[in-house]
Amino acid sequence: MTEHTPSQPRKWIVPMLPRSNDEAHRASTPLELFFDLVFVVAVAQAAVALHHGFAEGYIAESIISYLAVFFAIWWAWMGFTWFASSYDCDDVPYRLVTFIQLTGALIVAAGIKQAFEQTDYTVVVVGYVVMRLAIVSQYIRAGYTNPSKRKSLYSIAIGFIICQIGWVTLVFFQGQAWHPYAFFILGVIELFSPFWGGREIDTTWHIGHITERYGLFTIIVLGESILSASLGIQATLESGEFNISLVPIIIGGLLIIFCMWWAYFESSTSNLLTSMPTAFLWGYGHYFIFASIAAVGVGFTVQIDYALHHTEINSITAGMMLAIPCVLYLLMLWTLHTNLQTATRFQLFLIPSFALLILLTPFTSQPALLIGLLLVLLLVIKLVMKHRQDTK
User: Fold this and answer.
1) Which of 117, 128, 301, 332 has the most CB atoms in a 10 Å sphere around its CB?
2) Is the pTM of this model over 0.85?
3) CB 62 within 8 A of CB 50
């Protein structure tokens, strides 16, 4: 893509041509960073709704709603990210269409409370369809500009349109016994829709750009978890209910967040995206990473609620609300970042062993603190292993 200097006027419309996958200095644009910030608003709304559901005892229902809503948020974000890595031309039409996607994300955020409390996904679906039809227009534009890739790009666009028709149709059958199964099937179809025409498209996404985009969104979601925990502590202080029992929870929560960040960025992931199937697996697996990070912030807040007797759930359930997303994060990160061919037997069993120990912490009196200490111990072991390997 042509770079513009301040002395060069930016063209309003430029051809939407594939960007080079070895382009130098391919970094996230200000528009992409703005996109992430708007989407994290929807993530925050989903986390707040999950917290309220947990506190009121609607655990199973809240988890189902959370996973469904987070799918809409994550899948729309992922679609934009991978398309932008290939075809971001940053002209006026591209920016305007991106603004439409952001509007759809805000509509989704507005409908999350209704989805959790009334199991009514109408507003969420409306916002999701707005986001997806906007990306469809980008695929159509890219296909029009690139005759050699037109068939494949149009095929993907048609697949997206069919899926949106399916989502809108499902809105009229909410409450039916078969609705959750249809929702799941349609979600699977969405996940495979990029493959319909994608095999014939030359890979133009930029490895460095993609890993940076995922890393930045990971940081933002981690920040949202810290914010939700901070707001919980702030509300406690303002109510005058702070007591000494919150200290180990706060310390444990900070250790957990710091270790989660360290675990994600401790090694380069660009060497993992060596083929299209591997890249898709890596990208899809981040649904669980992003969702678990946001859920950790919720679990931390639930721990505060339990310590102050603001929830009816028991201590084991409250502990599980924090332990399970931590375990999911660890196992998913281990699955995506571990090279099974070069890893030793000790390395293969290290993460699963710690995951099992974390699942046992809810049966103790201080699950948050113990989870944090276990993650610190895991980090120390991995650092020592890396140091020994580097000095050989």
Assistant:
1) 301
2) yes
3) yes
